[in-house]
Amino acid sequence: MSESEEDGMRTAEILREVARAFEIPEVGVGDSFAKLGANSVGLLRLMSAIQEKFDVIIDLVDIFQVKNVAELVTLVDEVLARKKER
Q1: How does residue 7 score in pLDDT terms, banded at 50, 70 and 90?
Q2: What is the band of 2 on the pLDDT scale with cuts at 50, 70, 90?
Q3: What CATH number is attached to the domain comprising 25?
Q4: Cα(69)–Cα(36) distance, integer angstroms
Q5: What are the CA-CA distances from residue 79 to residues 35, 38, 45, 55, 69 (Å)?
Q6: How many domains is the chain partitioned into structurally?
Q7: Are the beta carbons of 74 and 34 closer than 8 angstroms?
Q8: Range(s) of the domain holding residue 58
Q9: Which end of the chain is less congested by CB atoms within 10 angstroms, N or C?
Q10: Are 38 and 22 in contact (CB under 8 A)?
Q11: Residues whose CB falls within 8 Å of the CB of residue 3, separated by 6 or more in sequence, listed in order
Q12: Rounded distance between C-alpha atoms, residue 76 and residue 25, angstroms
């Protein structure tokens, strides 16, 4: 599987987790968390799901600072890249 295919699959998985965490049927990469009705409980659910799915640790501060799904995808990519470097 190519790197771009892996990126696409990871993005799709993150979109599914965002929809599940905020209990909404559909989410786009450009959607802002404010528009999605994000709240602290949903963000905590999302953080937990992402950590479990990708076997990474995301700081609580970071999850509350991302403004949209695209930023979350970037955050997960950065955390995964740091993990590979170790």
Answers
A1: confident
A2: confident
A3: 1.10.1200.10
A4: 10
A5: 25, 22, 18, 10, 15
A6: 1
A7: no
A8: 3-85
A9: C
A10: yes
A11: none
A12: 22
How many other C-beta atoms are found inside a 10 Å radius of the C-beta of residue 29?
15
> Could you tell me which residues are beta bridge partners of residue 32?
68
Query: Cα angle vertex 75, ends 59, 35, to 5°?
Result: 95
For residue 14, how far is the Cα from the chain centroid? Answer: 5
CA dihedral 57→60→61→66, nearest 10 degrees, is 80
Q: What per-residue confidence (pLDDT) applies to 79? A: 93
- pLDDT tens digits, one per residue of 37-86: 888 899 999 999 999 999 999 988 998 899 999 999 999 999 999 988 87
